[in-house]
Structures are given as C-alpha cells and as structure tokens.
Amino acid sequence: MGSKAIQMVCVTFGVIGLIGVIVCCALPLWKVSAFIGNNILTAQDFQDGLWMQCVKQSTGQQQCKVYDSMLELSSDLQAARAMTIISCILGGLSLLILFCGADFTTCVQNEDAKPKISLVAGIGLLLAGLLVIIPVSWSAHITVRDFHNPLVPQAQKREMGACIYIGWAAGVLMILAGGLLCCFSKPKSSSSGGTAKYYSNSASAPNKNYV
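-> structure tokens emitted (211 positions)
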C-alpha cells in the first residue's frame, strides 16, 4: 500500500475519531441510571454528562440542567472536561497539519518536508487519542466502583453511558491513525552522491587518447 493510500486511511480514521470525541464531549450520556432493585419500575431516567444533567420521563419528555458551578464538580469530571476539549483541539489541528503535508495535496511543494509534517500530525493524533481514552476510562472506573459499593444507595447508582464507548472507539481510531503516520512517515533517502560519482567516472573515460 502506497503512502498516499495510508495517509487517506489515516485521515478517515482521524476524522471519524474527531467526530466521536466531539459527540462524547457534547452529549450527556457518560452515566445513566442503573435499573436495579426497586429502580426497575422508576419513571425517571437520569443522564449525566460533562456539562449538564438530564432527566428523561417515561412519557418521553426530557429536561436538562447545566451544572451551576465548576468548583462543585468532582475531580474526574473537571479533568474530563479539560482533556476532552484539548483532545478536540489537538485532533483538529493535527488533521489540518496532515492535510497540508499529505502526499495527495499540493499545499507544501517541498517533498523532503512532507514526511516531517506527517510525523508531527501523527504525534498529535496519538496524543489526542490518549487524551480522550484517559477521561472515559477514569469515569468508567468510578462508575463501576460506585455500582459495586454497598454504601451507595441504589437510587444513586449509575451505569456507563454511550459516551464512554464512543470515547473508547474514537480514541482507538485516533491512536491507530497516529501510529500509522508515525510508522510510514520516514524521510526519503537521497542517493544523489552515488549518482554524481558514477557519472563523473564515466565521463572521464572518453577523454583517453588512443593511437
């Protein structure tokens, strides 16, 4: 597979991963109500996200409320906000850099600089993937820990929402794209020195005088 095809695959993975990170950051589906015990017949479904908490009624109506103060949030939620936003910004910038330095674009005319630009984009995608996997894994750990904690009331127990799985998938895609770019973005070796030596030797041959 040529470098152009690999870069196009990396762009596809990166774009899908970036969309997943944005969805993960926006939707309030990090934690959802756990229907266990007496909560099976409840008429309310609680949904927690990075920015708001929503309550969905059995009738289909949904009400959301933005968190009043950032200082009142737990440490994992504050860290998840910061890392997810940085992941979105870093992923978007890395894709722009990749577009500029890709072999299938003409934004950069210097062929020797394109592998270095692609390498920078690959490192950025790797970091963006890690920055989204860390908060979703942290949130998943806390959710599972509280779920099995007997001191937590059943009404306050939560399960992992869809954003956790979306974040894992998006992080894996971005890490895969960054890893492929780092592996295949190698500077092109120049063989001009050997070629010049070959022609200089051959050019001196006709200068001999024969009697």
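The CA atoms of residues 141 and 160 lie 9 Å apart.
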